[in-house]
Design brief:
This protein has 222 residues and is of the alpha/beta class. Helices cover 35% and strands 18% of the residues. It contains 7 helices and 9 strands, in the order αββαβαβαβαβαββαβ.
């Protein structure tokens, strides 16, 4: 890791501890070796950086919206962290190849399947790209829910630290590996993947997946 990245990560860890009350010990449950895909909910700009700086030195590469490369500060962060730019409406072949390469190098690939931030903290319907990547590479998926960022705006106005809860679920895998993945199966897979994430969240925040029933295309502890 470059000195500049270490400095940035250290500063961000300090900032997180000033702004938030957060216990990062659940992140120690994440497997320390081998490739995997982290799936996380997306409430604010903070989830990705929080996971990145507190999971070090475990290698982690995140998908990030390509617009973050338009501004100097966020472009600098994305580049030193080795993030992968993605068009949220249409995941390109180049983006997929970069994701495959990250997993082939035994990194953790972090993805927020909702694509865009939730305005109320409730889960939105996931996009199927992560299902295709997991199916293609046959790697474990690890759900991580961060809860509390939705209260940051009102707390900062009162000069209060915001409590953040991190929940890490058990790894799971897609039963069907290899072969063709049609559109219907992709939709079924992403819904089941998102249910694993929803189960880590309070009932009132499960949103689109509050009452979802799976069709058992995944394997792993529930």
């Amino acid at each position: 890791m470059k000195i500049s990245e270490r400095i940035v990560n250290s500063l961000l860890r300090g900032l997180f501890r000033i702004l938030f009350k957060v216990d990062t010990s659940p992140l120690k449950e994440v497997m320390q070796e081998g490739p995997a895909i982290i799936i996380s909910n997306h409430i604010s700009i903070f989830e990705g950086p929080l996971l990145y700086v507190f999971m070090q030195p475990r290698p982690l590469i995140a998908l990030a919206k390509k617009e973050l490369w338009d501004k100097a500060v966020t472009r600098y962060l994305m580049n030193i962290w080795g993030s992968i730019g993605v068009d949220r409406e249409n995941m390109s072949r180049q983006t997929l190849e970069e994701c495959f390469n990250a997993l082939d190098a035994k990194n953790i690939l972090a993805i927020a399947p909702e694509g865009t931030r939730s305005s109320n903290g409730k889960l939105q319907q996931g996009k199927p790209g992560v299902a295709y990547i997991a199916h293609k590479k046959g790697v474990p998926l690890i759900p991580i829910a961060t809860i509390g960022f939705e209260n940051f705006s009102k707390n900062i106005k009162r000069l209060r630290r915001t409590p953040i809860t991190i929940a890490v679920g058990p790894p799971f895998e897609i039963i069907q590996k290899g072969g063709r993945l049609d559109a219907q199966t992709r939709e079924e897979l992403i819904d089941e993947i998102m249910v694993r994430l929803a189960l880590l969240m309070p009932q009132e925040l499960r949103g689109y997946y509050r009452d979802h029933k799976g069709v058992f295309k995944l394997t792993g502890e529930l």
